[in-house]
Design a protein that fits this description.
The complex is a heterodimer. Chain A is built from 16 helices and no strands. By secondary structure, chain A is mostly helical. Chain A has a single domain, classed as Up-down Bundle (Formate dehydrogenase/DMSO reductase fold), CATH 1.20.1630.10. Chain B folds into 2 domains: about 1-40; about 80-300, 2-Layer Sandwich (Alpha-Beta Plaits), CATH 3.30.70.20. Helix content of chain B is about 25%, strand content about 15%. The two termini of chain B are about 25 Å apart. The chains are: A mainly alpha, B alpha+beta. At the A-B interface, helix 6 of A face helix 1, helix 5, helix 6 and strand 7 of B.
C-alpha cells in the first residue's frame, strides 16, 4: 500500500460515482436539492441562534437529538448482519453483510451531523476531541458517546476501505486484518447504542429516562429498525443493479427481526405495566405521551401510530406466510421503521422533558427550519450511502454476483 | 457538614500545559510571536489559564465592554476565600410572590432582556395541595399578591454539593468552586445542553439567541464566572451573585426581598446567620431523594 496506489484507488472510485443512468442522476439531484435547502435553513440557525427552532429551556433537546438517537440504532444494527455472516460463516448473509457496514458509516455520519447542528457553539466542537480538547471522560456520558461513535465510524471505514481497496486491485482481502476488526465491530455496535442510552438513562432528574430498561429497549428497537431499512434497500439494489441477494438471506434476516420485534414489544409492555400499576408522580410523562396532559396532546396520535405500526409489523413478521411474501414483508419493514422512528425520534426525548422538572408543560413541535435541517442531514446520509454502494457494487461484483465467495 | 473541594485536576492537563508552554517557546523563538497565540488556539478553560494570560484576557474584556456599553466596566477574577462555603435560606412562610427577586437578579446579573432569561422562577402553589410541582404555576399574574389560597416557592440554582449538571458536561465547562458556587465558563461551553437535561431544578438557562442587553441597564461590576455578558449559544445560571458575595455583600435577591424571606451566609461558620437559622427553624431541601445535596435550604416557618 503506497500513496500512489491509494491515490489511484480514490480517483478510480470517484470515476465510478460519475457513471449512472437517469434514475441515479435524478436521485442524486433530488438529494442535492434537500441538502441545499437544509444548508440554507442551517445558515439561518447559525446566524440567528437556536431560537429559530422550537426548543426552549423547558424542552431543551428535541427533534435533532431524537433523530440522532434513532440513527445510532440504525448504525448499531449492522451488527445483526455481521454476527451470522462471520461468526457462523453463513454465506448467503456474508455476501451482503458489506451493505450493513456501508449503512453503518452513513448512519454515523448523520448522527455526528445531528449532534453538530444541535450545539449552540459549533465552532467549539473541537473541544470534544480527546487530548486536544477537554473531553470530560470518564465522567460525561456524552463524552463517551463522542468517543465510541467516532471509534465505530473509523472501525467501519477501515473494514470497508480495506475490502474496496483490495477489490480495486483485484487482490483477496487480508483475513488476518479484517476478521478481528469485524469481530470487534460486534461489541462496538452494542456499545454505541448502550452508551447513547446511558446519556439519557443516567439523568435522575428525568424519571422517564431514568429506567434501567432503557438500554435494552434501545438495543431491541435498533434490531428492528436497522434490518428493516436494510431489507428495503436490498430489494431496491436487486432491482437497480446486478447484485444477487438470495431469498434465503432475506428470510433469515426477517426471522431474526421477528425475535427482535417480540423483545421490543415485551420490554415496552414491562415498562408500561410498571408505570401505570405503581402510578407515582413519574407517570405524568407516559400520560403526556399516550393520553395527553391538561389538554396538551401533540404527541398522542404519534404515540398510538407508533404502537399500532409496531404491533402490526410484528404480526406480519411472526406469521411465516406473510414473512415470506415480499409484499407483506415490505409493508412490515415500512411499518416497523416508521414505528421505531416515531418512538426514538419523538416519543423518547420530548416526553422525557414534558412536563419539565418544575412541572411546566411546554408543548414542543419542530419548526420548518428544524425539519429542513433534518431532511438535509438525511439527504447527506443517503448520498453517502448511494456513493458508497456505487463504488462497492462494481468492485465487489465478483463476490456479490457469484454464488461462491472468494477469499473465504 | 461535608465540605466541597474544587474538582481535582487531571494530570494529562498539566502535562499538556507543559507541552503547550514548550511549543509556545519554540514559536516565540522562531517567529518572534508571543506564546499567547498558541494558547489562544487551544481554548483553555478558566481554571487552567496562566495568571499572566488571564490578566491579558481580562484587560481585553474590560476594554471591549467599556467601549461597547460606555461605562467603566471591571471584570473580576477573584477566587474563593478559605473557610467559606456559601449557603442560602428561603422562608416559604414569608415569601409573598412579588417577583422583585426575579428582576433584581436580572438587573444585577446582566441577563438577556430579549429573549428574557430569568435565573429565579417563582412558583405559585395551592395551599390545599402543599408543595406539588406538577400543580404549580409560574405564570401567575393577579392584581395583587399574595393571594389568599396560594403560597409561593421561588426556585433557582440549588448549588448542589453533588451536582448532576457538572458530571454530565462533556468538556469540563462547568464546575464547583471551593466556596461551593457552581459556575460556567462561557468561553468554554459548547452549548450541548446536557447540563439542562441533568438539572432537576430547571436552574440552567440557554442563550437561544444573541442576548439583548441595553447599555444603560448594564451592571459594570462584573465577574469572569458570573455576570459578564454571555454570547449566543451558551448556558448560564445563578452564581449566588459571585461578583457580590466574594466581596462580602449579599446576593442581589437577598437584598431586594421586601419581606426578609431570603437569607444567605457561610455554612462553615457556626455563628453565621445561616447556621443559627438552620438550628432554629425546620429546613428541607427540594427533591432530596435525588441526593443532589443542595446548599439551598427552604424553611417551613418563621
Amino acid at each position: 500500500m503506497n500513496i500512489k496506489k491509494i491515490w489511484e484507488f480514490l480517483i478510480g472510485s470517484f470515476r465510478l460515482t460519475l457513471k449512472g443512468n437517469w434514475a441515479y442522476h435524478s436521485w442524486m439531484a433530488f438529494l442535492a436539492v434537500l441538502m441545499v435547502s437544509g444548508g440554507f435553513a442551517y445558515w439561518r440557525q447559525f446566524t440567528e441562534g437556536l431560537i429559530v427552532t422550537n426548543m426552549r429551556d423547558q424542552v431543551s433537546w428535541a427533534f435533532y437529538i431524537g433523530n440522532f438517537t434513532f440513527l445510532v440504532g440504525v448504525a448499531a444494527a449492522a451488527v445483526l448482519l455481521v454476527i451470522p455472516a462471520y461468526v457462523y460463516n453463513w454465506k448467503p448473509i456474508r455476501e451482503i453483510a458489506i451493505f450493513g457496514e456501508l449503512l453503518a458509516i452513513s448512519a454515523i455520519v448523520m448522527c455526528l451531523l445531528f449532534v453538530t447542528v444541535d450545539i449552540g457553539q459549533p465552532s467549539r466542537a473541537l473541544e470534544l476531541l480527546p487530548f486536544i480538547g477537554s473531553l470530560n471522560v470518564p465522567s460525561s456520558l456524552l463524552g463517551w458517546d463522542v468517543l465510541v461513535l467516532n471509534g465505530y465510524l473509523v472501525l467501519n471505514a477501515m473494514i470497508v476501505g480495506h475490502f474496496l481497496y483490495k477489490a480495486y486491485f483485484k487482490k483477496p482481502y487480508n483475513k488476518n486484518f479484517v476478521v478481528p476488526l469485524l469481530l470487534f465491530s460486534i461489541p462496538a455496535a452494542i456499545s454505541i447504542h448502550t452508551v447513547t442510552a446511558f446519556v439519557y438513562n443516567g439523568m435522575a432528574a428525568r424519571p422517564f429516562w431514568n429506567a434501567s430498561i432503557l438500554a435494552p429497549r434501545f438495543i431491541a428497537s435498533a434490531l428492528c429498525s436497522g434490518p428493516a431499512i436494510m431489507l428495503i434497500l436490498f430489494q431496491i439494489l436487486r432491482k437497480t443493479t446486478h447484485i444477487r441477494i438470495r431469498k434465503e438471506a432475506i428470510s433469515k434476516i426477517a426471522e431474526l427481526m421477528a425475535y427482535a420485534m417480540f423483545l421490543n414489544l415485551f420490554l415496552f409492555g414491562v415498562e408500561i405495566f410498571k408505570e401505570y400499576y405503581s402510578n407515582t408522580s413519574h407517570l405524568v410523562h407516559t400520560k403526556y405521551l399516550y393520553t395527553g396532559l391538561h389538554g396538551h396532546t401533540a404527541l398522542v396520535p404519534f404515540a398510538w401510530i407508533s404502537l399500532i405500526f409496531s404491533v402490526v409489523a410484528f404480526m406480519l413478521f411472526l406469521v411465516p406466510k406473510t414473512r415470506m411474501n415480499m409484499v407483506t414483508l415490505n409493508l412490515g419493514c415500512i411499518l416497523i421503521y416508521a414505528g421505531v422512528y416515531i418512538e426514538k425520534g419523538l416519543a423518547l426525548v420530548i416526553p422525557g422533558m414534558t412536563p419539565d422538572t418544575l412541572g411546566e408543560i411546554y408543548e414542543y413541535i419542530p419548526t420548518w427550519i428544524e425539519i429542513r435541517v433534518g431532511a438535509g442531514i438525511f439527504a447527506i446520509g443517503f448520498m453517502v450511502f448511494t456513493l458508497l454502494c456505487k463504488v462497492a457494487i462494481p468492485l465487489l461484483h465478483d463476490t456479490l454476483a457469484d454464488p461462491v465467495a472468494p477469499g473465504a | 457538614m461535608k465540605t466541597t473541594d474544587d474538582r481535582p485536576k487531571i494530570d494529562r492537563r498539566s502535562f499538556l500545559a507543559g507541552g503547550t508552554a514548550a511549543m509556545g517557546a519554540i514559536a516565540a523563538g522562531v517567529t518572534g510571536a508571543s506564546a499567547g497565540f498558541i494558547e489562544d488556539l487551544l481554548h483553555k478553560n478558566f481554571k487552567e489559564i496562566s495568571p499572566d494570560r488571564m490578566q491579558r484576557i481580562v484587560r481585553e474584556m474590560e476594554q471591549e465592554y467599556t467601549e461597547k456599553y460606555g461605562k467603566n466596566v471591571t471584570v473580576s477574577t477573584k477566587g474563593a476565600q478559605q473557610g467559606v462555603l456559601f449557603g442560602y435560606g428561603l422562608d416559604l412562610s414569608r415569601c409573598i410572590g412579588c417577583r422583585r427577586c426575579v428582576y433584581g437578579c436580572v438587573n444585577e446579573n446582566n441577563q438577556s432582556r430579549d429573549p428574557q432569561i430569568h435565573w429565579i422562577r417563582v412558583l405559585e402553589m395551592d395551599k390545599s395541595k402543599g408543595i406539588n410541582l406538577e400543580e404549580s404555576n409560574p405564570y401567575y399574574n393577579p392584581e395583587t399578591v399574595p393571594e389568599e389560597d396560594s403560597f409561593y416557592m421561588p426556585v433557582a440554582c440549588q448549588q448542589c454539593r453533588n451536582a448532576p449538571c457538572i458530571k454530565v458536561c462533556p468538556v469540563e465547562a462547568t464546575w464547583q468552586e471551593a466556596d461551593g458556587i457552581v459556575v460556567v465558563d462561557y468561553d468554554h461551553c459548547i452549548g450541548c445542553r446536557c447540563c439542562m437535561s441533568a438539572c432537576p431544578y430547571g436552574a440552567r438557562h440557554f442563550n437561544w439567541a444573541e442576548p439583548e442587553l441595553a447599555a444603560e441597564s448594564v451592571n459594570p461590576d462584573m465577574h469572569y464566572l458570573g455576570n459578564r455578558p454571555r454570547p449566543n449559544g451558551v448556558v448560564e445560571k445563578c452564581t449566588f451573585c459571585i461578583q457580590r458575595v466574594r466581596n462580602g455583600k449579599y446576593p442581589a435577591c437577598v437584598e431586594i426581598c421586601p419581606v426578609g424571606a431570603r437569607k444567605f451566609g457561610n455554612l462553615l461558620d457556626e455563628a453565621d446567620e445561616m447556621r443559627v437559622l438552620m438550628r432554629k427553624k425546620r429546613v428541607f431541601v427540594l427533591k432530596e431523594d435525588l441526593n443532589t445535596q443542595p446548599k439551598f435550604y427552604y424553611f417551613y416557618a418563621t
